[in-house]
Amino acid sequence: MRCQFEHVTFPKDCSIRIYHRQIPSIPFEWHHHPVYELTLTLNSRGWRFVADHIDHYDSQDLVLVPADMPHTWASTSAIDESLPHTALVVWFTREWAFRVADACPETFPLRTLINRACAGLSFPQEAGARMESRLPELLSESPLKRLHIVQDLLWELAETEATILASQAATRPESSRESRQLPRVLDFLYQHFAESIRNEELCKVANLSERSLHRLFVRHLGENVSDYLCKLRIGRACMLLVETERPISVIAAETGFANLSNFNRRFLDVRHMTPKEFRSFVVKYGRMPNSQPELDLAKRPPSLEQGAKRPIPVPESESDAASILTKGTRSAQTAPASAIPKAIPELAHQR
């Protein structure tokens, strides 16, 4: 089974991302991403897969998955069939966790938790119940309140006994070329966005065809290359409009726009006001206008949306669960053997 790469983005000026998922059933989506994931599953029971670990899960299942470790859940039934299966997912980076942990002696246990989680951790149901009791605060409209609650929860979990899940620490699945291609292209865009960029250049950086590059962006970022590049340029233009008194025509040229009319049109599309109106607003109110859409905690990163549309058989036994992962291992793009659960050895190594 191919291990899909999920590109997790973080809202602007936020250290964490929370995703509140409510669906009729939890599909099998074998995937990985370069960030840590704390997942609380509610009103659901089924199978949990974390690297080579396979086990049943029930409501209030609370698991911490390290960066780049393949994982998924697959539901078999809801506790209350009249309500949706629910997952509350918290994503954060290892670097952020270590910065918080090293800020003062009181927060140092967070570093210990992150190190303990290198093979995945499952926490007692009581810990899941405590996190469920704080659901309203985790879903608060205030980013600061969400951050404080997540920090409190992580410190509590640092002092909580947990079960190690996988037999090995996380390693990036070798099959996921996308996890290397996308950062390369994004780095190139960040460094050269003010220049004239041709698709051929980006294709060369990613070693992809134009069609494959387009699919890569739409799949993981939810928009095409042109729209993404435009937003980078507009972001830089906003900074120059605020911090300098340069003429708008000069700013347009410095941020990669071929002419002023195109700049004005694209700026209006992104910021819902003209560059002149934007600059006047900052002068009048002393702050940036908030034209960004409100954060939707029920919206997931786009990476797995297409995969979610492909039905996967629901496993009813441990051998069924293992065979789902090993199905298709003849493909050249399968996950490495170390990332496939070995509950049934003869299936895990089948070729």
Descriptive overview:
- The chain has 351 residues and is an alpha+beta fold.
- The protein folds into 2 domains: 4-171 and 315-348, Jelly Rolls (Sandwich); 179-285, Homeodomain-like (Arc Repressor Mutant, subunit A), CATH 1.10.10.60.
- Helix content is 42%, strand content 15%.
- The chain is built from 15 helices and 11 strands.
- The strands form 3 sheets. It has a 6-stranded antiparallel sheet with strand order 2-9-4-7-10-11. It has a 3-stranded antiparallel sheet with strand order 6-5-8, covered by helices on one side. Strands 1-3 form a two-stranded parallel sheet.
- Strand 5 and strand 6 form a beta hairpin.
- Helix 1 runs antiparallel to helix 2.
- The radius of gyration is 23 Å and the shape is globular.
- The termini are close together.
Task: Determine and state the CATH class of the largest domain.
Answer: Mainly Beta
Helix count, DSSP H or I runs of 4 or more residues:
15
Name the CATH homologous superfamily of the largest domain.
Jelly Rolls
Count of distinct strands: 11
Q: Residue-averaged pLDDT, rounded? A: 82
Name the shape in a single word: globular
The SSE string, one letter per element, is EEEEEEEEEHHEHHHEHHHHHHHHHH
CATH topology heading of the largest domain? Jelly Rolls
Kindly name the structural category. Answer: alpha+beta
Could you say what the CATH architecture of the largest domain is?
Answer: Sandwich
Low-confidence stretches: 328-351
Relative strand content: 15-25%
The helix fraction, in percent, is 40-55%
